[in-house]
Specification:
The chain has 9 helices and no strands. It is an all-alpha fold. Helix 1 (3-18) packs parallel to helix 8, helix 2 (22-34) packs antiparallel against helix 9 (180-203) and helix 3 (36-58) packs antiparallel against helix 8. It is globular, with a radius of gyration of 18 Å.
Length: 209
């Protein structure tokens, strides 16, 4: 691969990474409610989904998904429904908790990772995007697997620190208030963010007009 192509891909991926979207919203909401580590777990789940989509794009599945509206809508609605359910559950817990609620709420350590993974997998536009983008940066006359692996590694190396930075900032903002009421508000806000992401994913069209 030419260095110029790698640099162009890195710049483009960096631009997409810092632009607020569902991935940033998911990461920040967990970090604000449960701390930096929870946000980082979400970010790792998102990156695993990206690697899956990059791999599938390399196999040409992106074209198949693009030409199958039923598969597209089924995939995004299942993921959106899961996130909406988790968000509503968090809002319900915050609403029903008393003022003596503890400052920290125990949570399954795997849940943020799972929600990050499902949240990103629920956005099939990622595989369509990667399926259309990656061929522009590979050399067709050479082995494709190493090139796709390199691009996947570069994607993770760029986006993971960016999401980590968002997690740190959101966690710091969440620590500004320590009262039980503030904890409940943060939990309710986190749930509202999950519901918002679910709505955004459910409404995303197959092809931009």
């Amino acid at each position: 691969m030419h260095h110029e192509k790698l640099l162009a891909f890195a710049l483009l991926q960096g631009l997409f990474a810092i632009t607020p979207g569902p991935a940033v919203l998911l990461t920040a909401s967990h970090a604000m409610a449960r701390g930096t580590l929870a946000g980082l777990r979400v970010a790792l789940g998102i990156q695993l989904a990206n690697v899956c989509y990059l791999s599938l794009s390399g196999l040409g599945v992106g074209l198949l998904l693009r030409t199958s509206p039923i598969a597209f809508h089924a995939l995004k609605l299942v993921g959106a429904a899961y996130l909406a359910w988790r968000g509503l559950a968090a809002m319900h817990d915050a609403w029903t908790a008393g003022d003596s609620a503890p400052a920290g709420t125990a949570v399954n350590a795997a849940r943020p990772f799972t929600e990050g993974l499902i949240g990103q997998l629920a956005n099939p536009k990622s595989i369509i995007f990667f399926g259309a983008l990656l061929p522009l940066f590979v050399a067709p006359g050479h082995a494709l697997v190493p090139q796709y692996a390199l691009l996947a590694a570069l994607c993770v190396a760029i986006e993971l620190p960016v999401l980590g930075a968002y997690a740190v900032m959101a966690s710091a903002a969440g620590r500004l208030a320590h009262s039980a009421r503030a904890v409940r508000l943060r939990q309710a806000g986190s749930g509202a963010c999950l519901v918002t992401v679910a709505v955004l994913l459910a409404l995303v069209p197959l092809v931009d007009r």
